[in-house]
From TrEMBL:
InterPro entries: NDUFAF7, NDUFAF7_sf, SAM-dependent_MTases_sf. Keywords: Methyltransferase, Transferase. It comes from Aliidongia dinghuensis. One of its GO terms (molecular function) is protein-arginine omega-N symmetric methyltransferase activity. This is ATP synthase subunit beta. Pfam families: Methyltransf_28. GO terms for biological process: methylation.
């Protein structure tokens, strides 16, 4: 038993089963707080770690949005869950094509992990020594004003609750202890999911809700409606609210049992983009139709950027560059499962 598992078991013995959200928050707090889990030597990889083209295209998208907003200054470039800082470093490099923005932009990183904050500081000090990033625990702590916000694989790491359909009612899925004292799923009393579950969910189906994700989306939308700005949320998930069990654990680039070794594996759940879009729109943001990541990157010039990068490269370097971009774009890899939700301030046409 890991120390966190012992702590959770003690909590359950004292007060009864806990929500999946409490389990996920405790496990991910320990997991991200104690390591850099990204890359080949870690547990999983992400688009910015696969190819620099990802961050460069997001940088160009942000610069384009800023120009469409008539170039407000000062402007904050905000990233939620910046991982190793690679995405921000690649975006800042691309922003050099708009010097007025690159020179004026303030960097705000929303990151709770001390280990990853240190990694982000090292990445940005090495690649952009002229910038002074500011770190925050939550978006609510970032000063208000014109903003360009990006979040890649942030929302899938926020704690979800799970609900099981039982005839005409729903019961929350909880984490309790089995006869051997091991963490095990159980069901709570009848309850109401915080957003309406799909009517066609069959008996026994699981439905997932993520209140922290909706709260962050509302905060983004509120900020966009008060000051000019644009936001790009990228994650894997579904475009329509649907039933399904998507909670998964990944360790060493392989799936692991969800309840085994809490705090030692990554835990994620698919993002409900339908609910996120509605939360943004409900507070006045202008929300664009959801786009598959591959299509979004192609439409914004990923292949042109690849061609430019390939110029003068030897065969080995060219193969690596091409494989990275293919992984981002290919519908069988990250191109379709990952999706892009864009939002802007209300008076603007959708991005
Ligand atoms: C899956 S990683 C994605 C990293 C990066 N965006 C990338 O694409 O490589 C999730 C990131 O979100 C951070 N994170 C997770 N939960 C968070 C929370 N509640 N508040 C702020 N950051 C959080 C993690 O520490 C990590 O930096």
């Amino acid at each position: 038993m890991t120390p966190l598992e012992r702590q959770l078991a003690g909590e359950i013995r004292a007060s009864g089963p806990i929500g999946v959200d409490r389990f996920m928050a405790a496990a991910l707090g320990h997991y991200y707080g104690t390591r850099d889990p990204l890359g080949a030597g870690g547990d999983f990889t992400t688009a910015p770690e696969v190819s620099q083209v990802f961050g460069e295209i997001l940088g160009l998208w942000s610069a384009d949005q800023w120009q469409r907003l008539d170039g407000p200054l000062p402007v904050r470039l905000v990233e939620l869950g910046p991982g190793r800082g690679t995405l921000m470093a690649d975006m800042l490099r691309a922003l050099r094509v708009v010097p007025a923005l690159r020179q004026a932009v303030e960097i705000h990183l929303v990151e709770t992990s001390p280990a990853l904050r240190a990694r982000q500081a090292a990445t940005l000090a090495g690649s952009h020594p002229d910038v002074t990033p500011h770190w925050h625990d939550a978006l609510a702590d970032v000063p208000e004003g014109p903003m360009l916000l990006v979040a890649n694989e942030f929302f899938d790491a926020l704690p979800i609750r799970q609900w099981r359909r039982a005839g005409e009612t729903w019961r929350e899925r909880l984490v309790g202890l089995d006869a051997a004292g091991q963490l095990a799923f159980t069901l709570g009393p009848e309850g109401h999911p915080p957003i309406p579950p799909p009517n066609d969910a069959p008996d026994g189906a699981l439905f997932e809700t993520c209140e922290p994700a909706l709260a962050v989306a509302r905060e983004i939308g509120r900020r966009l409606s008060r000051a000019p700005g644009a936001a790009l949320l990228i994650d894997y998930g579904h475009g329509r609210t649907a039933a399904g069990d998507t909670l998964q654990a990944v360790k060493g680039h392989a799936f692991a049992p969800v309840l085994a070794e809490p705090g030692e594996a990554d835990l994620t759940a698919h993002v409900d983009f339908d609910a996120l879009g509605q939360a943004l729109a409900a507070v006045g943001a202008n929300v664009a139709p959801l786009a598959p990541q591959g299509q979004f990157l192609i439409d914004h010039g990923a292949n042109l950027r690849l061609d430019a990068l390939l110029r003068g490269k030897d065969e080995d370097a060219a193969l690596v560059l091409k494989a990275g971009v293919r992984r981002l774009l290919d519908p069988m890899e990250m191109g379709r499962l990952f999706k892009v939700l864009a939002a802007t301030s209300p008076e603007r046409s959708p991005p």
